[in-house]
């Protein structure tokens, strides 16, 4: 399993969670942006999330991935 934390520049409604494999979507305080976070099965799932960002034209500010045993 992978713990993912992905910060994007755009605001994104939590209803988009399903498009990101059920990951949590939270708004960042201040001028904008959102954080997409949670557990992914494997790197293929992570690449799927990154592909969804690309398809929606979202700009990634930061990506953190931690492997869980």
Walkthrough of the structure:
This protein is an alpha+beta fold and 69 residues long. It has a single domain, classed as 2-Layer Sandwich (Alpha-Beta Plaits), CATH 3.30.70.980. 20% of the residues lie in helices and 38% in strands. It contains 1 helix and 4 strands, in the order βββαβ. It has one helix at 43-56; strands at residues 2-8, 24-27, 34-40, 60-67. Strands 2-3-1-4 form a 4-stranded antiparallel β-sheet, with helices on one face. Strand 2 and strand 3 (34-40) form a beta hairpin. 16% of the residues are buried. The model has no long low-confidence stretch (mean pLDDT 91).
Topology, element by element:
Blueprint: E1 2-8, E2 24-27, E3 34-40, H1 43-56, E4 60-67
Antiparallel strand pairs: 1-3, 1-4, 2-3
Which structural class best describes the helix and strand composition? alpha+beta
Radius of gyration: 11 Å
Number of helices: 1
- The backbone outline, from C-alpha atoms, is globular
CATH architecture: 2-Layer Sandwich
* CATH class bucket: Alpha Beta
Q: Helical content, roughly?
A: 10-25%
List the strand order in the largest sheet: 2-3-1-4
User: In whole angstroms, how far apart are the ends?
Assistant: 7 Å
Series of H and E elements:
EEEHE
- CATH topology, anyone? Alpha-Beta Plaits
The percent range for strand residues is: 35-45%
Identify low-pLDDT runs: none
DSSP strand tally? 4
**CATH fourth-tier homologous superfamily:** YebC, transcriptional regulation domain
What summary fits the major beta sheet? Answer: 4 strands, antiparallel
Count of the domains: 1
- Average pLDDT, rounded to a whole number, is 91
């Amino acid at each position: 399993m992978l713990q993912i934390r992905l910060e994007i520049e755009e605001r994104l409604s939590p209803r988009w969670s399903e498009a990101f494999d059920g990951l949590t979507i939270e708004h960042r305080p201040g001028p904008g942006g959102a954080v997409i976070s949670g557990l992914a099965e494997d790197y293929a799932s992570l690449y799927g999330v990154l592909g969804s960002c690309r398809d929606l034209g979202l700009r990634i500010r930061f990506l953190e991935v931690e492997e869980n045993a």
